[in-house]
Amino acid sequence: MRPYLHRSFKWPTTPCLHHLPSAKRFKTSLSPRLPSFSLQHTNSNPRHSATTVLHPPLSILPPSPSIPQIKQAHAHIIALGLSRHRSIVCHLLVACAISPSPSPEYAYAIFNCIEHPNVFSRNNMIRCYAKGGTPSQSLALYADMRRNNVCPNKHTFPFVLQACSKVSTIADGVQIHAHVVKLGFVEDVYVRNALIHFYCAFRELDDSRRVFDESSEQRDVVSWNAILAGYARDGKMDVCEELFDEMPERDAVSWSTMTLGYVVGGKLEKGLELIREMRDKGIAPNEATLVTVLSASAQLGLLENGRWIHSTIKALNFPMTVPLRTALIDMYAKCGCIELSRQLFHEMPQKDVFVWNAMICGLAIHGLGAEAVKLFQRFTHEGLRPMNVTFVGVLSACSHAGLVSEGRRYFESMMEDYGIEPEMEHYGCMVDLLGRAGFVSEALQLIEKMTVPPDPVIWGTLLGSCRVHGLVDLGETIGRKLIEMDPTHDGHYVSLASIYARSRKWEDVIKIRRLMVDRGANKVAGWSLIEAQGRVHRFVVGDRTHERSREIYEMLEEIGRQLAVAGYSPDVSGVLHDIGEEEKENAVREHSERLAIAFGLMVTGVGGLIRVVKNLRVCGDCHEVSKMISKLFGREIVVRDGSRFHHFKDGECSCFDYW
Q1: Which has the closest alpha carbon to 342: 311, 371, 378, 319?
Q2: Which residues of 539-554 are buried (b: 16+ CB within 10 A; e: fewer)?
Q3: 335 or 533: whose pLDDT is higher?
Q4: 129-173 pLDDT, tens digit each
Q5: Which of 81, 143, 638, 639 could bridge 336 with an S-S bond, Cβ 3.0-4.6 Å?
Q6: Sheet containing 527-532, strands listed edge to edge, beginning at the edge strand earlier in sequence
C-alpha cells in the first residue's frame, strides 16, 4: 500500500507533468460533485464581491450550451466589437467548460485570446481538456500554472484530479494529492470528493477509504456515493451494504449504485428488490441502472422481470432515450418476445447503429435468418456503416437459418466492401454455418486459412459438426487436439465421448470420461429456468429438491403415457453410458427442461404459453418430445437454449429441426 500523504509530505516545486500519455476514460455512471461555474459568477477574489453582469449574447445561452450555440454567441460578441473584453471572453470560456460536448481546440483558441489568464480562466481550460478527452493537456496546463506562480484555488483540484483519473498511471494524481495537502485544500469537501473518486478510479480502495475516513465532518452525500461506487465496482457488496446502512442521507445515485452492484454481481433479484423499494420511497432510478437491469434480465431470459422494469419506466414517465429503447429491444428479443422487439424497433423515430444491431441479432437468435438479412439490407440502404458486431449478427442469422450462400457473400463483403478484418466471432459464425450445413471440409479449410490463431471455441464448433454428421475419424482427431489445447474444459471430453457413444465405442467412452475426471474437468450440469408465480424456479437433471417435486414427477408420468400412445420412441443415442435401454430412457426423461416443462404445465392456465431458459444446447430427444407435448397438450412452448430460441407449437418447431 502506498504511504498516506500527510501535511509534512515533501513534494517537488516543479511537478514533472509534461507530455503525459492520454488514456481511456474510466467508465462510471458516478462522478464527484465538481463546482460548476455559472455564466454569471461572483469574482473569486474576496476584495471584489460585485457580480459580473453579462452581455445578452452570453446571458441568453442555455444552462448546458452546445458548441454551435456557443459559436453563435461568439459571433455576436465579435459583431458587437466585444471580442477583446476580458470578462466576456473569460465567460465565453466558461460556456465551453460547461458544454456537454466541449471542443478543447475551440476552447484553447478562446483561451489564447486572453492576455495573462488568471486562475479562473485556467481552471475552465483545465476542465475543458479533462472533459474533452485530452486529460494529459489538463495536467500540462496545471504544471504551467505552477511554473508561472499562478496559485491554484479550491476549484482547480477537482478538475485536475478528474483528468488524473483518466490517464494511464496513478503517480500524477498522487503528486496532485501532495499539492492539495501542501496548499491547505485537503479539508474542502469538493476536493476530498475528487480525491475519493480518483483513488477509486484506480481501484486503490484503501487510499480512497483513508481520504473518506480522515474527516467525517467534511463529507456529503457525494462523498458516500463515491466510496460506495468504488466498493461496488470491486464487487465488495458486503462492504457496500454496511456503508449503505450507515449513510445519513441517500439520493437516487446511492440507490442506483447498490442496484448496479447487485446486478453486475449476478444478484438480479436483490437489485430488483432495491428498485421496488426505491419506487415505494418515490425515488426514480437513473437511466444507467435501468439499462443494466434490462441487460441482466435479457442475459438470464427472465421476461417477467424485464416486463416489470418496462412498466416502471412507463409509470415514472421516464424519457424513452435511444439507449433505453435499445435495451428494451434486446431484452424482449432475448426473452423470447421478438414481436415486441419488432414493435419497439419500428416505433423508434431515430435509430442509431446500436439499435439496428440489437434488432438484427435478436432476429438471428430466433432463427429468422431471411428477415435479419432483409433488415441488414435496409440498414445499409439507410446509409449507415455496419460494425463488427453487425456482421456477427448477420452471419449468425445465416448460420441458424442455413443460408450458406448468403453467409459466404456477407463474409466476403465484410472484408472487401467495408474493410473489416474478420475476428474470432466472425470465423466462429462461418465455421458454425458451414459445419451445420454439412460443409465440414470447407469449414476445416477456413480454420486453416484464418489470419488469427484459432482458439478452442472454433475447434469445438467444428467438433460439434463432426458429432452431428457422424464424422468419427475427423472428430477424434479434433477432439484429442482440443483436450491437449485446453485439458480443463469439460465440453471437449463430452463431445468426443458423444462421438464414440454414437459409434458404440463404449471402451473409448469410458477412457475419455476417466481422463476427464483425472484432469479435474468435471462436466457442467445442465439447468433450466422457468418463471412462475412470481418466482424463478431452477431445475437440474434428475432434480428432486423442488417443493412440488412429487407433483412434477406425476406430471412426467402423465406426459410419458400420452407420448407412448402417440407413438413416441426415445432417442437415447446421446446417453454416454453402456447401460440398458430402460436406464437410458429414464436418463433422458429427467432432463432439466422436461422437469421445467412439466412444472409449467402444472402452474400455467389452460392454453398458457410456457417459457424455459436452458444453459446448454437442447438434446435431440428433448427437442422431439417438446414438439409432441406442444401438440398433445395444446400449448406453445418457448425454449431458449445455449444457442438459439425454439418455438414449439402444434407439433412443429420454429427451427424446422435445424439447430
Answers
A1: 371
A2: bbbebeeeeeeeebbe
A3: 335
A4: 998 888 999 999 999 999 988 899 999 999 999 999 998 889 999
A5: 638
A6: 535-540, 527-532, 610-614, 637-640, 645-649, 652-653
What element of type H or E holds 537?
strand 535-540
Per-residue confidence (pLDDT) for residue 120, from 0 to 100: 93
The 8-class DSSP code of residue 219 comes to -
* Domain limits, the chain: 263-350, 373-518, 528-653
- DSSP letters for 277-311: HHHHTTPPPPHHHHHHHHHHHHHHT-HHHHHHHHH
Fold for domain 373-518? 1.25.40
Q: What is the dihedral of CA 57, 58, 62, 64, to 10 degrees?
A: 140
Question: What are the φ and ψ backbone dihedral angles of 94, each rounded to 5 degrees?
Answer: -60, -45
Which residue type does 239 have? Answer: V
Q: Which residue has the cell 502506498?
A: 2
Dist CA 7 CA 178 (whole Å): 8
Other Cβ atoms within 10 Å of 385 Cβ, number = 10
Distance CA 560, CA 625 (A): 10
Instruction: Give me the residues paired with residue 538 across strands.
Output: 529
Enter the C-alpha cell of residue 357: 444491431
CA distance 553 to 594: 10
Give the containing element (helix H, strand E) for 638.
strand 637-640
CA distance 502 to 215: 70
Residue 461: alpha-carbon gap to chain centroid:
25
All residues at 6 or more sequence positions from 572 whose CB lies less than 8 Å from its CB, including other chains:
581, 584, 585, 587, 588, 621
Q: What does the pLDDT average to over 310-335?
A: 93
Per-residue pLDDT band at 11 (split at 50, 70, 90)? very low
Average pLDDT over residues 241-258: 93
Based on its alpha-carbon atoms, the radius of gyration of the chain, rounded to whole angstroms, reads 31
- 81: alpha, beta or left? (left if phi > 0; alpha if psi -120 to 50): left
CA distance 158 to 507: 69
d(CA 89, CA 74): 9
What is the number of helices (H) and of strands (E) in the chain?
A: 32, 6
> Out of 327-341, 454-468, 521-535, which region has the weakest mean confidence (pLDDT)?
521-535
Are β-strands 610-614 and 637-640 bridged in parallel, bridged antiparallel, or unpaired? parallel
Question: CA 58 to CA 63: how far, in whole Å?
Answer: 11
pLDDT reported for residue 495? 82
Q: Which amino acid type is present at position 501? A: A
How far is the C-alpha of 540 from the C-alpha of 654, rounded, in Å?
Answer: 25
How far is Cα 539 from Cα 529, in angstroms, rounded to an integer?
Answer: 7
Closest CA to 200 of 172, 168, 171, 232: 232
The pLDDT, as a whole number, for residue 580 is 45
Dihedral (CA of 242, 243, 247, 250) sign: negative
**Which distant-in-sequence residues (6+ apart) come within 8 Å of 293 by Cβ?**
259, 263, 268, 271, 272, 275, 285, 305, 309
